[in-house]
What does this fold into?
Amino acid sequence: HALQDQHFDLQYISSTYFVDEDQRMGVLGLIEGDAVFTEQLYADVLAETDPRAKEIMSFDILGFGEYNDAIPDIYRELTYNKYLDGMNFVKYLHTLGGWEQVNAAYDDPPRSSEHILHPETYLAGDAPVSVSLMPIYGVWEADWEMVWGETFGEFYLRQYLYTQLDVETANQAAAGWGGDRYLLYRERDTDQQAWVMRHAWDTPTDTDEFSAAFAQLAAARLATSAFSLDDTTDCWKSGDGEVMCLRTESAKGTLAVFAPNLSLARALLDGQA
It folds into this structure.
């Protein structure tokens, strides 16, 4: 990292490109992935002349062996994304254009976790689409508050889908991510939560794949079947009253909500009309 800072000014990069959490993950994937890839190449060369280097190469340098069932999967996945997915991203660039290609990435860093997970999207200039959501006013009780407004990103979307879906289905559904915006609300006294998320997708096929996966997730999460709220919106309601809805806004756009009751879910949907 000292060498990276010497040549590329990491403080400037972080202050310029850490716009949101998803873009931060993209930039860190480059920085950490470059470090791990360089360490591996150095160890490989060193092992040719010093057999002791093989012992170093066998170390669990990322600490993956320390994870156990008591630690949530998301922490392990965050480590994998930063170091292993990041390393594969840098390796992809290096294979195509050597160190010149890797160095050039510091002048134009990855802008999303999608770029790290799919290096070809970075090289294709597939920048995230700007997506907006309107904060909801006038429909909440006084004890509700908005606690988070961010870009979710493909990485965290995958993690959310993993909670109910198999890895292959979740990854396929999250691929084709074009951009998003997420707002999370919380009721102060009961700690109930509600959220709304708008997605932009690269193609109509990507929209269909995500919609099908979301339907599976909602049905599994709430243990219920879908019902139509209107011509473009399907909802799922649990026995406890919790509701999830998905609205198809366009051929390449969806709006998803979760709320503790149907009235609040409608308000979230209508607030984004």
About this structure: The chain has a mean pLDDT of 91. DSSP finds eleven helices and seven strands in the chain. The two ends are 47 Å apart (CA to CA).
